[in-house]
Write a structure and sequence with these properties.
The longest helix is centred in the last third of the chain and has 36 residues, at 261-296. By secondary structure, the chain is mainly alpha-helical. The two termini are 35 Å apart. Helices cover 70% and strands 0% of the residues. It is built from 15 helices and no strands. Residues 69-277 form the ABC transmembrane type-1 domain.
Protein backbone atom coordinates (compact mmCIF):
# COMPACT_ATOMS: atom_id res chain seq x y z
CA UNK A 1 0.00 0.00 0.00
CA UNK A 2 1.35 3.37 -1.00
CA UNK A 3 1.83 5.77 1.87
CA UNK A 4 0.81 9.38 1.70
CA UNK A 5 3.35 12.15 2.06
CA UNK A 6 2.26 12.83 5.63
CA UNK A 7 2.51 9.14 6.60
CA UNK A 8 5.97 8.86 5.09
CA UNK A 9 7.18 11.90 7.03
CA UNK A 10 5.64 10.51 10.21
CA UNK A 11 7.47 7.20 9.73
CA UNK A 12 10.79 8.98 9.26
CA UNK A 13 10.17 10.99 12.42
CA UNK A 14 9.35 7.79 14.36
CA UNK A 15 12.53 6.12 13.10
CA UNK A 16 14.66 9.13 14.09
CA UNK A 17 13.07 9.30 17.56
CA UNK A 18 13.53 5.57 18.18
CA UNK A 19 17.12 5.70 16.93
CA UNK A 20 17.79 8.59 19.31
CA UNK A 21 16.31 6.62 22.20
CA UNK A 22 18.47 3.60 21.34
CA UNK A 23 21.59 5.76 21.24
CA UNK A 24 20.71 7.36 24.57
CA UNK A 25 20.55 3.89 26.12
CA UNK A 26 23.63 2.55 24.34
CA UNK A 27 25.96 5.50 24.91
CA UNK A 28 26.34 5.17 28.72
CA UNK A 29 27.22 1.50 28.28
CA UNK A 30 29.85 2.30 25.63
CA UNK A 31 31.21 5.12 27.78
CA UNK A 32 31.67 2.84 30.79
CA UNK A 33 33.30 0.22 28.57
CA UNK A 34 35.73 2.81 27.20
CA UNK A 35 36.63 4.05 30.69
CA UNK A 36 37.18 0.49 31.93
CA UNK A 37 39.56 -0.21 29.03
CA UNK A 38 41.41 3.07 29.38
CA UNK A 39 44.35 4.16 31.48
CA UNK A 40 42.77 5.55 34.66
CA UNK A 41 44.94 8.65 34.95
CA UNK A 42 44.39 9.48 31.28
CA UNK A 43 40.63 8.99 31.59
CA UNK A 44 40.55 11.34 34.59
CA UNK A 45 41.83 14.14 32.34
CA UNK A 46 38.79 13.75 30.10
CA UNK A 47 38.41 13.16 26.39
CA UNK A 48 37.29 9.52 26.61
CA UNK A 49 33.81 9.10 25.16
CA UNK A 50 33.30 6.05 22.94
CA UNK A 51 36.79 4.61 22.51
CA UNK A 52 39.73 4.32 24.95
CA UNK A 53 42.61 6.69 24.28
CA UNK A 54 45.24 4.61 26.11
CA UNK A 55 44.07 1.01 25.90
CA UNK A 56 44.87 -1.23 28.87
CA UNK A 57 43.52 -4.35 30.58
CA UNK A 58 45.04 -3.62 33.98
CA UNK A 59 41.66 -2.61 35.42
CA UNK A 60 40.23 -6.02 34.56
CA UNK A 61 43.36 -7.77 35.82
CA UNK A 62 42.88 -6.13 39.20
CA UNK A 63 39.13 -6.77 39.31
CA UNK A 64 39.31 -10.41 38.22
CA UNK A 65 42.34 -10.98 40.42
CA UNK A 66 40.53 -9.80 43.53
CA UNK A 67 39.50 -12.70 45.78
CA UNK A 68 36.47 -10.87 47.15
CA UNK A 69 35.09 -10.24 43.68
CA UNK A 70 35.65 -13.84 42.61
CA UNK A 71 33.83 -15.06 45.72
CA UNK A 72 31.03 -12.57 45.06
CA UNK A 73 30.68 -13.95 41.55
CA UNK A 74 30.38 -17.49 42.85
CA UNK A 75 27.69 -16.39 45.30
CA UNK A 76 25.79 -14.56 42.57
CA UNK A 77 26.00 -17.44 40.10
CA UNK A 78 24.96 -19.97 42.75
CA UNK A 79 21.98 -17.94 43.96
CA UNK A 80 20.88 -17.21 40.39
CA UNK A 81 20.97 -20.86 39.32
CA UNK A 82 19.49 -22.35 42.51
CA UNK A 83 16.99 -19.53 43.04
CA UNK A 84 15.76 -19.61 39.45
CA UNK A 85 15.23 -23.37 39.24
CA UNK A 86 13.78 -23.51 42.76
CA UNK A 87 11.43 -20.63 42.05
CA UNK A 88 10.21 -22.16 38.79
CA UNK A 89 9.54 -25.51 40.47
CA UNK A 90 7.58 -23.98 43.36
CA UNK A 91 5.66 -21.62 41.07
CA UNK A 92 4.77 -24.41 38.64
CA UNK A 93 3.61 -26.79 41.38
CA UNK A 94 1.42 -24.17 43.08
CA UNK A 95 -0.07 -22.95 39.79
CA UNK A 96 -0.76 -26.49 38.62
CA UNK A 97 -2.46 -27.41 41.89
CA UNK A 98 -4.63 -24.28 41.86
CA UNK A 99 -5.60 -24.85 38.23
CA UNK A 100 -7.96 -27.67 39.34
CA UNK A 101 -11.35 -26.01 39.73
CA UNK A 102 -12.49 -28.81 42.04
CA UNK A 103 -9.76 -28.09 44.58
CA UNK A 104 -11.32 -27.59 48.06
CA UNK A 105 -11.18 -23.96 49.27
CA UNK A 106 -9.59 -22.94 45.97
CA UNK A 107 -11.11 -19.43 46.01
CA UNK A 108 -10.07 -18.89 49.62
CA UNK A 109 -6.49 -19.93 48.89
CA UNK A 110 -6.32 -17.69 45.83
CA UNK A 111 -7.69 -14.77 47.84
CA UNK A 112 -5.14 -15.31 50.60
CA UNK A 113 -2.27 -15.51 48.10
CA UNK A 114 -3.50 -12.34 46.38
CA UNK A 115 -3.62 -10.56 49.75
CA UNK A 116 0.07 -11.25 50.32
CA UNK A 117 0.87 -9.57 47.01
CA UNK A 118 -1.06 -6.41 47.90
CA UNK A 119 0.12 -6.01 51.50
CA UNK A 120 3.25 -6.93 53.43
CA UNK A 121 4.41 -6.59 57.00
CA UNK A 122 7.31 -4.26 56.26
CA UNK A 123 11.08 -4.54 56.38
CA UNK A 124 11.53 -4.80 60.16
CA UNK A 125 9.08 -7.72 60.66
CA UNK A 126 10.58 -9.36 57.58
CA UNK A 127 14.07 -9.12 59.07
CA UNK A 128 12.86 -10.46 62.43
CA UNK A 129 11.23 -13.41 60.67
CA UNK A 130 14.41 -14.17 58.73
CA UNK A 131 16.43 -13.95 61.93
CA UNK A 132 14.04 -16.29 63.75
CA UNK A 133 14.35 -18.78 60.91
CA UNK A 134 18.14 -18.63 61.13
CA UNK A 135 18.54 -17.30 57.58
CA UNK A 136 20.37 -14.05 58.39
CA UNK A 137 24.06 -14.24 57.47
CA UNK A 138 23.57 -17.46 55.51
CA UNK A 139 23.54 -18.20 51.79
CA UNK A 140 19.92 -19.38 52.01
CA UNK A 141 18.66 -15.89 52.76
CA UNK A 142 19.01 -15.32 49.02
CA UNK A 143 17.02 -18.45 48.12
CA UNK A 144 14.11 -19.23 50.44
CA UNK A 145 12.40 -15.78 50.64
CA UNK A 146 12.27 -15.58 46.84
CA UNK A 147 11.17 -19.11 46.02
CA UNK A 148 7.53 -18.09 45.56
CA UNK A 149 6.36 -15.12 43.51
CA UNK A 150 2.65 -14.37 43.57
CA UNK A 151 2.79 -12.51 40.27
CA UNK A 152 4.64 -15.33 38.51
CA UNK A 153 2.21 -17.85 39.98
CA UNK A 154 -0.85 -16.01 38.63
CA UNK A 155 0.76 -15.66 35.19
CA UNK A 156 1.60 -19.36 35.20
CA UNK A 157 -1.90 -20.23 36.42
CA UNK A 158 -3.53 -18.33 33.57
CA UNK A 159 -1.26 -20.08 31.09
CA UNK A 160 -2.08 -23.54 32.44
CA UNK A 161 -5.79 -22.74 32.39
CA UNK A 162 -5.38 -21.87 28.71
CA UNK A 163 -4.22 -25.41 27.89
CA UNK A 164 -7.11 -27.28 26.19
CA UNK A 165 -8.97 -29.31 28.80
CA UNK A 166 -9.39 -32.11 26.26
CA UNK A 167 -5.68 -32.89 26.50
CA UNK A 168 -5.76 -33.22 30.27
CA UNK A 169 -9.04 -35.16 30.23
CA UNK A 170 -7.72 -37.60 27.63
CA UNK A 171 -4.61 -38.18 29.76
CA UNK A 172 -6.75 -38.82 32.82
CA UNK A 173 -8.91 -41.28 30.86
CA UNK A 174 -5.71 -43.13 29.94
CA UNK A 175 -4.94 -43.48 33.63
CA UNK A 176 -2.50 -40.59 34.03
CA UNK A 177 -2.31 -39.13 37.51
CA UNK A 178 -1.53 -35.50 38.40
CA UNK A 179 2.25 -36.05 38.36
CA UNK A 180 2.23 -37.72 34.95
CA UNK A 181 -0.11 -35.06 33.57
CA UNK A 182 2.21 -32.35 34.86
CA UNK A 183 5.36 -33.93 33.46
CA UNK A 184 4.08 -35.16 30.10
CA UNK A 185 1.53 -32.48 29.18
CA UNK A 186 1.75 -29.29 31.20
CA UNK A 187 5.54 -28.84 31.32
CA UNK A 188 6.18 -29.47 27.57
CA UNK A 189 3.40 -27.03 26.61
CA UNK A 190 4.57 -24.46 29.17
CA UNK A 191 8.18 -24.22 28.04
CA UNK A 192 7.84 -20.68 26.56
CA UNK A 193 6.22 -19.42 29.76
CA UNK A 194 8.77 -21.19 31.96
CA UNK A 195 11.59 -19.64 29.92
CA UNK A 196 10.07 -16.17 30.26
CA UNK A 197 9.48 -16.50 34.01
CA UNK A 198 12.92 -18.04 34.41
CA UNK A 199 14.44 -15.00 32.73
CA UNK A 200 12.50 -12.63 35.02
CA UNK A 201 13.61 -14.58 38.07
CA UNK A 202 17.24 -14.93 36.99
CA UNK A 203 17.58 -11.21 36.26
CA UNK A 204 16.03 -10.42 39.63
CA UNK A 205 18.52 -12.65 41.45
CA UNK A 206 21.49 -11.39 39.44
CA UNK A 207 20.70 -7.70 39.95
CA UNK A 208 19.65 -7.89 43.60
CA UNK A 209 21.95 -6.01 45.97
CA UNK A 210 19.41 -5.35 48.73
CA UNK A 211 19.52 -8.76 50.44
CA UNK A 212 23.30 -8.76 50.62
CA UNK A 213 23.39 -5.23 52.01
CA UNK A 214 20.78 -5.68 54.76
CA UNK A 215 20.67 -9.37 55.64
CA UNK A 216 24.34 -10.37 55.33
CA UNK A 217 27.36 -8.93 57.12
CA UNK A 218 29.90 -11.62 56.21
CA UNK A 219 32.04 -10.36 53.33
CA UNK A 220 32.43 -13.84 51.85
CA UNK A 221 28.66 -14.12 51.36
CA UNK A 222 27.88 -10.86 49.57
CA UNK A 223 26.84 -11.08 45.90
CA UNK A 224 28.62 -9.12 43.21
CA UNK A 225 25.91 -6.44 43.00
CA UNK A 226 26.23 -5.71 46.72
CA UNK A 227 29.99 -5.48 46.29
CA UNK A 228 29.40 -3.07 43.41
CA UNK A 229 27.11 -0.96 45.61
CA UNK A 230 29.82 -0.83 48.28
CA UNK A 231 32.40 -0.02 45.63
CA UNK A 232 30.40 2.88 44.22
CA UNK A 233 30.22 4.36 47.73
CA UNK A 234 33.98 3.98 48.32
CA UNK A 235 36.12 7.10 48.48
CA UNK A 236 39.63 5.74 48.05
CA UNK A 237 41.36 3.06 46.01
CA UNK A 238 42.77 1.18 49.01
CA UNK A 239 39.23 0.37 50.15
CA UNK A 240 38.69 -1.31 46.78
CA UNK A 241 41.96 -3.20 46.38
CA UNK A 242 42.35 -4.33 49.99
CA UNK A 243 44.77 -7.15 50.69
CA UNK A 244 43.22 -9.62 48.28
CA UNK A 245 44.29 -7.96 45.07
CA UNK A 246 46.28 -9.99 42.59
CA UNK A 247 49.68 -8.67 43.67
CA UNK A 248 51.44 -10.54 40.87
CA UNK A 249 49.40 -8.67 38.29
CA UNK A 250 50.19 -5.37 40.00
CA UNK A 251 53.89 -6.16 40.35
CA UNK A 252 54.36 -6.93 36.67
CA UNK A 253 52.33 -3.91 35.58
CA UNK A 254 53.99 -0.58 35.02
CA UNK A 255 50.57 1.09 34.97
CA UNK A 256 49.76 0.74 38.67
CA UNK A 257 50.33 4.42 39.28
CA UNK A 258 47.77 5.23 36.58
CA UNK A 259 44.91 3.25 38.15
CA UNK A 260 42.05 5.31 39.55
CA UNK A 261 38.98 4.48 41.59
CA UNK A 262 36.72 5.43 38.66
CA UNK A 263 38.45 3.05 36.23
CA UNK A 264 38.12 0.19 38.74
CA UNK A 265 34.45 1.01 39.29
CA UNK A 266 33.73 0.93 35.56
CA UNK A 267 35.52 -2.40 35.20
CA UNK A 268 33.42 -3.91 38.00
CA UNK A 269 30.24 -2.54 36.42
CA UNK A 270 31.10 -4.16 33.10
CA UNK A 271 32.09 -7.45 34.70
CA UNK A 272 28.79 -7.59 36.58
CA UNK A 273 26.59 -6.50 33.65
CA UNK A 274 27.97 -8.39 30.65
CA UNK A 275 27.04 -11.97 31.72
CA UNK A 276 23.34 -11.24 32.18
CA UNK A 277 23.29 -9.19 28.94
CA UNK A 278 24.59 -12.22 27.06
CA UNK A 279 21.57 -14.24 28.19
CA UNK A 280 18.95 -11.92 26.68
CA UNK A 281 19.54 -12.67 22.95
CA UNK A 282 18.94 -16.39 23.52
CA UNK A 283 15.73 -15.94 25.54
CA UNK A 284 14.34 -12.82 23.89
CA UNK A 285 11.67 -14.65 21.87
CA UNK A 286 10.44 -16.43 25.01
CA UNK A 287 10.59 -13.14 26.91
CA UNK A 288 8.29 -11.38 24.42
CA UNK A 289 5.97 -14.36 24.06
CA UNK A 290 5.70 -14.77 27.83
CA UNK A 291 4.76 -11.11 28.27
CA UNK A 292 2.12 -11.34 25.55
CA UNK A 293 0.64 -14.56 26.96
CA UNK A 294 0.51 -13.13 30.46
CA UNK A 295 -1.31 -10.00 29.28
CA UNK A 296 -3.67 -11.50 26.71
CA UNK A 297 -4.80 -14.53 28.68
CA UNK A 298 -5.21 -12.53 31.89
Amino acid sequence: MKLSRGETIAQYIIVVVLAGMCLSVLYPFLYMLAISLNDGASAAKGGVYLWPKNFTLINYEIVLGNEIIRQSYLITIARTVIGTFGGLIVTLLVAFGLSYRGLPLRSTILGYILLTMLFNGGLVPFYIQLNNLGLVNTFWVYIFPGLFSVWNMFVMLKFIQGIPEALIESAELDGAGPVRTLVQIVIPLSQPMLAALGLFTAVGHWNDWFAGAFFVTRQNLIPVQTFLQQLLAAQDLSAVLGSNTNQEALARSSQMQNITLMSIKMAVVMVSAIPILCVYPFLQKYFVKGVLVGSVKG
